[in-house]
Amino acid sequence: MDTQLTPGVYRARQFIRKFHSTYREIDAAADAGVIERLRHGWYATPGADPAVVAAVRTGGVASCVTALIRHGLWIAPGYDDEIHVRKSKHGELDGIRHCHMFGPVPATPDAVDAIPVALACAARCMTPEHWIAAVDSALNQGKVTMAELDDVWGITPAWVRNMLDRCDGRAQAGTESIVRVRLRALNFHVQVQPYIADVGRVDLLVGRLIIECDSTQHHGSPTLRRNDYRRDRKALIGRWPVIRVDYHDVLHNWPAILADIRAITGTDLHRRRRQTS
Ligand SMILES: [Zn+2]
Measured between alpha carbons, how far is 242 from 228 in angstroms, rounded to an integer? Predict the structure, then answer.
């Protein structure tokens, strides 16, 4: 398990290693109510993550988007309203929704699935563009590599390979991933994180149009905001038009944004001419 994760839920063997205790001491602590016995062989310490506790108590482990959020990946809003559980080999999850991963199903050694396994589950639970953004986030943060994913997954089904081919660990934000995927699907030539002299590294470049994503994250930091202003001036001098979009905009306002991108890059000139003639 990722050592940064502290779900507070452990198998007995992990408990013994982590707290230098014995099986007898664990049983005594559970009987005394100091720790909670969730099901055979699994225990929760006080203050344990409630979602992970619920996943283990129901006979599985926290996986899919529930695990990915805990690993610190960018996950599009709207996925955390239910707990995503992967069933243990002999677990019973009667009547409880659980996620299925593609490919061979590994054991459940940890209360929170590792990133490759959680991503394999999430491939069925997320939209393709949201899943690609999650993979981008894992790659960008250096929490996983393509080689590790290949290693854990083995032979991936064509529909997963198709999504994986569209991932790019250079993406700095989920919104950037989604804009890139959408524009490439429309055959725009999109450069990712190119360096422009005097301006610096930009998120996306389509023709001469710079697309900066999620710039609102700079709010509250005057230094970063002023750096954006400086970059905008330099871009203007270099004749590089800039648009800025955030996730809310992409989610609710995409047709208008796309129309503007087409207008600025001129890719829609032919169609617009025909419409106006
Ligand atoms: Zn799921």
Answer: 11
Ligand 1 centre distance from Cα of residue 79 (Å): 9
Q: Is residue 2 in some structural domain?
A: no
The answer on 139 and 119 residing in a single domain is yes
Same domain, residue pair 223 and 160: no
Between the CA of 148 and the centroid of ligand 1 the distance, in Å, is 21
Q: What's the gap in Å between 73 CA and the centre of ligand 1?
A: 15
- Whole-number Å distance, alpha carbon 84 to ligand 1 midpoint, is 5
Per-residue pLDDT in tens (0 to 9) along the chain, 277 residues: 444 577 899 999 988 888 888 999 998 999 999 999 999 999 999 999 999 999 999 889 999 999 999 999 999 999 988 899 998 776 665 556 688 888 888 888 899 999 999 999 999 999 999 999 999 999 999 999 999 999 999 889 999 999 999 999 999 999 999 999 999 999 999 999 999 999 999 999 999 999 999 765 666 688 888 988 999 999 999 999 999 999 999 999 999 999 999 999 986 544 444 444 3
Angle at 98 between CA 97 and CA 101, to 5 degrees: 150
The pair of three-digit structure tokens given for residue 117, joined into one six-digit string: 């396994």
**How many domains in the chain?**
2
- Residues 19 and 150 both lie in one domain: yes
What pairs with residue 242 in β-bridges?
210
Whether residue 147 sits in one domain with residue 45: yes
Q: What are phi and psi of 206, to 5 degrees?
A: -120, 110
Query: Which residue range(s) make up the domain with 64?
Result: 9-164
